[in-house]
Amino acid sequence: MATGTSIVRHDPAARLAAFGRVSTGSVDDAAEAIGRIFCPHALTPARETASDFFALHNCAVFGGFSVNYVAYGGSVAIDPGCLERFFLLQIPVHGSARIQTASRDTATAPGASASLLSPTIPTRMTWQGNCAQIILLVDRRLLEQRAAALSGQPACAIEFEPAVDLSSAGGRALQSQILDLVDLAERLGPRRPLSPAAAANVRETLLRALLHGQRHSASEAIDRFGGRAEALPPSLRRAREFLHAHAEEPLDLTQLAAAAGTGVRALQLGFRQHFGTSISEMLRDIRLAHLNVRLTAAAPDESITDIAFELGFTHLSRMASAYRAKFGETPSATLRG
Question: What are the backbone angles phi and psi of residue 62, rounded to the nearest 5°?
């Protein structure tokens, strides 16, 4: 949709100006156009501010995620229901918003709080006072697969706490990373995309910040599998570090126990008690996690077989079966994105 300069003047501080997608004073046009970018939704201006309505949406797309600047004039009610395909982190720039889910009512404001919407939770929102937000959209499959890799569990629906405290260490770090990404997109402009390696680095940084810095339904499983749920004995910490460092090599329990400084049986019992898994299962999950990261960032013509062998997989059919059970799709489907 062509950018209307009269609309842009309503918000001269808009970010990502070179990435304009929607600029309109029509409610119907805004709902239809922004619905195509995000998801279909009902959009209703407040009666007393209907004459002040405008909609502005700028969007920079990367592999598996995008950063967006969205602003509405006046006050509007937005009802997307379930987002289905993606997670949305919404950081207010000016104005305020109220987010309603089945069990929570969250108020957000610049510098104080943001909202993090999960695809399986029905949501309704009210944006008030010419509200504008910087929004991170993350592909659902990408985040759920990374949670599976970090938790040692099969991929499943992830649901976040919807309120993000921007004064907390995790909230400040997350906001800073999003703003850095917006700055980067503006420096590059729409004609200079991120290199695949740079996009992969940004993607990993964002996924770590979301899954380790915000509470969600897989947090306890990730903490347990990562050994953070309780004080981890030094021997187990050394053993886990050894597995990560030597994931591409065949498993030698005697060598692992020597590196950990304990006996094989004590190590086996410790893994069950502290990580909730066996040594061999953890090694397999480490390799599968590495494979998922590699395939997500790989070019479509790269060889899955070569990558799998590099990561220590010797039985490709077993690898493919374990990968599908864990991530809900085949390695080739991940490679195709």
Answer: -125, 180
Q: What is the pLDDT along the chain (337 residues), one digit of tens a residue?
A: 444 445 556 677 799 999 999 999 999 999 999 999 999 999 999 877 667 899 999 999 988 899 999 999 999 999 999 999 999 999 999 999 999 987 789 999 999 999 999 999 999 999 999 999 999 999 999 999 999 999 888 999 999 999 999 999 989 999 999 999 999 999 999 998 888 888 888 999 999 999 999 999 999 898 888 776 566 888 998 998 899 899 989 999 999 999 999 999 999 999 988 888 899 999 999 999 899 989 988 888 899 999 999 999 989 899 999 999 999 999 999 988 7
**CA gap 124, 101 in Å, rounded:** 7
The Cα–Cα gap between 202 and 184 comes to 11
Rounded to 5 degrees, φ, ψ at 143 are: -70, -40
Instruction: Determine whether 265 is exposed, middle or buried from the number of CB atoms within 10 Å of its CB (0-12, 13-18, 19+).
Output: exposed
d(CA 125, CA 81): 10
Which pTM value belongs to this model? Answer: 0.84
CA distances to 19, 90, 173, 184 from 202, rounded to whole Å, are: 19, 18, 14, 11
Task: Answer whether 275's CB lies under 8 Å from 152's CB.
Answer: yes
Which two structure tokens, joined as six digits, stand for 26?
Answer: 């029509």
Measured CA to CA, the distance from residue 43 to residue 45 in angstroms comes to 7
The number of beta carbons lying within 10 Å of the beta carbon of residue 271 is 21
Beta bridge partners of 107: 98
Amino acid at 335: L
> What is the identity of the amino acid at 50?
A
Q: Phi first, then psi: give them for residue 101, nearest 5 degrees.
A: -115, -175
- Residues for the chain: how many in total? 337
Q: State the Cα–Cα distance between residues 141 and 64, nearest whole angstrom.
A: 9
Collapsed DSSP state (helix, strand, coil) of residue 335: helix
Q: Which amino acid would we find at residue 142?
A: L
AA letter at 197: A
Alpha carbons 142 and 334: distance in angstroms, whole number: 9
